[in-house]
Design goal:
heterodimer; A: alpha+beta; Cytochrome Bc1 Complex, Chain A, domain 1; six-stranded mixed sheet; five-stranded mixed sheet; 16 helices; B: Cytochrome Bc1 Complex, Chain A, domain 1; globular
Chain lengths: ~425, ~425
């Protein structure tokens, strides 16, 4: 059943996309402002992340307690989160509560006051989260991977910021970021649920249509990130941990890259299909070394990383890295089999109805299509785009993106030889 | 809803939902970590892993791809009362999904080399969990809260047992519990009920029936005094947890305590498969205001799971940077004690009911979730419970909640756990 979204750009530049889905008497809303951690001022990393935590904690006409009481009284869920290139609001509620919940979302987007008490409390929460990550081998490995891969490129910075940068953040930082970045132009609202499409559209138009337009932001141009020139490995000792996390990565591609679809099929065959694709067959199924091993492709406005991850006993780290090297070398030398590529394509194309079953799934798909300009009928076109990827194109993607001689490898966990506590 | 029982004892539940061209198949077994004796902890979960590794008619190298070619996903989980397997895929895959589950029920291979290879995968899963201090603390607190009942040991098992268990232990457990009369197959989606029943009969009808060994019954003696555990390991963050003995899902005191939890920490719903997908509404909840809004904790949450036998109500908190475990403990316990002293107000009851009603809708979001709920409740009671949650909720009074809080939140009913991070000498 194809999606039939209604799309409208309001006079002030807000784009609204709505889709009816009457499976449950509920509504999912996603609102995205196209600014995130990437836009944090230097030395003020974490601004967007802290802003996201405080955005809905009080407006010019509603206190934080009033918002909390109103939402909680309806059993509605509202979260704001910051990514690299967007601050997103996500709300889930029953259909009867949609209009009042939307009113709160619009008020928070337009008129937040960032109360000093909440800025201090939520800053403390973020600091605690950063400290928790420092104790988690998976987070330690991945965060270090970004630093090693991206160096002086802005993607080396963490959206959450550092202890130093977050401690410095003040209410004024949030006010300034909001003034500069929160404008109707380029703002996207997606609503999916059990209401009439025209009703959802007019409700969003009523709530955001009179948001003064202001000046539009220039399109973002994320710089290229140079690929690593040589192989490098970083070992981070976390002696009291039970097992090690391995991250093995490269600078990848943008979503707009002509090779994106081939890279997606390649990624599925390499480290996703069934229990982790080729890598899973080797490291989990044949060698029994890991509960999880997978690859990921993070292609957005800029060139995010291609990463392979595994959690293994410290004594198996060297064997795991050697196995990843061997699989990647084999793919570079001999490619994937016809069967592997056919299976991955069949899976990726066939999984679309499942992705598009729930309100939240549909909303995420439509938002992504809007943010990357993929078209309102992308759900119809996507299976064909996937099927058009040839085996050669997938192999080329692997040769272009993966090269053991230039891999960046990060290992966080107990030193090898120690069995763990 | 269509309900049927085959001659061999297999229970079949079918619900038609025609909004998407999908079907979800779940096969549930009444076996979980509570059915494991000393020395065999973790056997149910390991058996679950082995049941993905080839059958008489699905060679090992052909397991992969059967569901994927239909764009489907498959998985399984084991917990204290149950083991379950699922596939959700386009409707064309229905026969393949039923075939896989029929094979799994009776014809898994348990190749010795596969058993060995999976031992290290499972120990890796356990050790990955141990990297998380909150999971470590949860294991210690749960193990301390029970003296007798096998709910005490973690579903993944103790590592010493995982190292010693044999292929025959695994195969014996499989043969004992994987019988039609101990299972429920649930099919939800774009199907025709009569057609599904015919297909189920065709795939499963030939599996021999026969009795299943009685599950051993254990009764935890009433706790006599507060118990405490303190875990000290390298780390950066302190975690606090308390667990109170709590009623089973079938007990009339369960819903009053569920309402108490909603008032304390926001309603979390009753679908453990989709838990967390929609964050709980908790900013006006008592514990959130007392702990998080004051900056003592960066997060706090309660947990009451629907279980077949009395399990635990747990409150967990992450101590905020620069705050102390003792202050967090004082804050949580004072909040709980106030509720046992004064109960809740009628507006709080109304709010909790509104939250839980919304959660019960979110809990049934799509064919996979609906099939999960029907099978989950059938396995610990009856599938009808999944459709009558609102009825039981509506019957809860302010007095019931007060009584539940009074009985539950006593010092002699609780086990308190502290994770005290120790500085790492190397960093």
């Amino acid at each position: 059943m194809p999606l039939t979204p209604l799309r409208q750009v309001l006079a002030n530049g807000v784009t609204v996309v709505v889709q009816e889905n009457h499976t449950t008497p509920a509504v999912s809303l996603l609102a995205a402002q196209r600014a995130g951690g990437y836009d944090d001022p230097d030395g003020r990393e974490g601004t967007a992340a802290l802003l996201a935590r405080v955005l809905d904690r009080g407006t010019a006409t509603r206190t934080a307690d009033q918002i909390a009481d109103d939402l909680d009284g309806r059993g509605a869920s509202l979260t704001v989160s910051a990514g690299r290139h967007q601050v997103g609001v996500s709300a889930t509620c029953l259909v009867d509560d949609f209009v009042p919940v939307l009113a709160i979302v619009a008020d928070a987007l337009r008129n937040p006051v960032f109360p000093g008490h909440d800025v201090a409390t939520r800053r403390g929460e973020i600091l605690t989260t950063i400290r928790q990550e420092e104790d988690d081998p998976a987070s330690v490995a991945v965060n270090r991977m970004f630093r090693e891969l991206y160096g002086s490129h802005p993607y080396a910075r963490r959206v959450r910021g550092t202890v130093d940068s977050v401690e410095r953040l003040m209410r004024d930082d949030l006010v300034r970021f909001h003034q500069r970045q929160f404008v109707p132009s380029g703002h996207v609202v997606v609503v999916v649920g059990g209401l009439d499409a025209s009703l959802m559209l007019s409700a969003v138009s009523d709530a955001l249509g009179d948001w003064p337009a202001g000046s539009g932001r220039p399109p973002l141009d994320v710089p290229e990130a140079p690929a690593a020139a040589a192989r490098c490995q970083v070992d981070i000792a976390m002696p009291d941990k039970s097992q090690s996390d391995v991250a093995y990565g490269f600078v990848g591609i943008r979503r707009a890259d002509a090779g994106f679809m081939a890279a997606s099929v390649m990624n599925n065959a390499l480290g996703q299909y069934a229990l982790g694709g080729r890598l899973g067959d080797s490291i989990r199924e044949r060698q029994g070394m890991a509960y999880y091993v997978f690859s990921s492709l993070d292609a957005g406005l800029g060139p995010g990383p291609v990463m392979i991850r595994a959690g293994v006993a410290a004594g198996n780290v060297a064997r795991t890295i050697a196995s990843i090297d061997a699989e990647v070398e084999a793919i570079r030398a001999e490619g994937f089999t016809e069967k592997e590529i056919a299976e991955s394509k069949q899976y990726l194309a066939g999984s679309l109805p499942r992705q598009l079953e729930t309100n939240a799934g549909i909303a995420a798909f439509l938002l992504n299509a809007e943010l990357f300009g993929l078209g309102a009928d992308y759900d119809q076109r996507l299976p064909g785009l996937i099927r058009a990827v040839t085996r050669d194109a997938a192999i080329d993607a692997a040769r272009r993106l993966l090269d053991p001689s230039r891999a960046t490898v990060v290992v966080a966990g107990p030193p090898a030889g120690e069995p763990g506590p | 809803m269509r309900e049927a029982t085959l001659d061999n004892g297999l229970k079949v539940l079918v619900q038609e939902i025609h909004t998407a061209p999908l079907a979800s198949v779940w096969c549930w077994y009444r076996v979980g970590s509570r059915d494991e004796g000393t020395g065999l902890t973790g056997v149910s979960h390991w058996v679950e892993h082995m049941n993905f590794k080839g059958t008489a008619n699905i060679p090992r190298d052909q397991v992969k791809g059967i569901i994927e070619q239909f764009g489907g996903s498959w998985n399984g989980y084991t917990w204290i009362d149950q083991t379950t397997y699922l596939e959700t895929a386009s409707i064309e895959a229905l026969d393949r999904m039923l075939f896989i589950e029929a094979e799994r029920m009776d014809r898994c291979l348990y190749e010795p080399t596969e058993c060995e290879s999976e031992r290290t995968v499972i120990i890796s899963e356990l050790q990955g969990g141990e990297n998380d201090p909150e999971q470590l603390l949860d294991m210690e607190v749960t193990a301390t809260a029970f003296k007798v009942h096998p709910y005490r040991h973690p579903t993944i098992g103790w590592q010493s047992d995982l190292e010693a268990m044999t292929r025959e232990d695994l195969y014996g457990h499989y043969r004992r519990f994987y019988r039609p009369s101990n299972a429920t197959i649930v099919v939800v989606g774009d199907v025709d009920s009569d057609d599904v029943l015919r297909r189920v009969e065709r795939e499963f009808g030939g599996i021999p029936g026969g009795p299943v060994a009685e599950r051993r019954r254990f009764v935890e003696p009433p706790q006599q005094a507060e118990r405490r555990v303190t875990l000290r390991k390298e780390g950066t963050t302190a975690y606090w947890k308390a667990a109170f003995h709590a009623p089973a899902f079938g007990d009339r005191a369960f819903f009053p305590l569920l309402v108490a939890d909603a008032v304390l920490s926001g309603a979390a719903g009753l679908n453990i498969w989709s838990a967390g997908r929609v964050p709980r509404p908790q900013r006006s909840a008592r514990l959130y205001r007392a702990l998080v809004d004051t900056g003592l904790a960066s997060s706090v949450g309660g947990s009451l799971m629907p279980t077949a036998q009395p399990f635990l109500y747990a409150v967990s908190a992450t101590v905020a940077e620069g705050q102390s475990l003792a202050a967090v403990e004082d804050g949580v316990l004072a909040t709980l004690e106030r509720m046992s002293r004064e109960g809740i107000t009628p507006p709080e009851l109304d709010k909790a009911r509104a939250q839980l009603r919304a959660r019960f809708v979110f809990d049934m979001d799509g064919v996979t979730d609906i099939a999960h709920q029907l099978g989950y409740f059938e396995t610990i009671g009856s599938w009808r419970d999944a459709l009558d949650l609102e009825g039981r909720l509506a019957a809860v009074s302010v007095e019931d909640v007060h009584e539940a809080a009074r009985r539950t939140f006593t010092s002699s009913n609780r086990t308190v756990g502290w994770f005290e991070p120790q500085a790492d000498a190397c960093r």
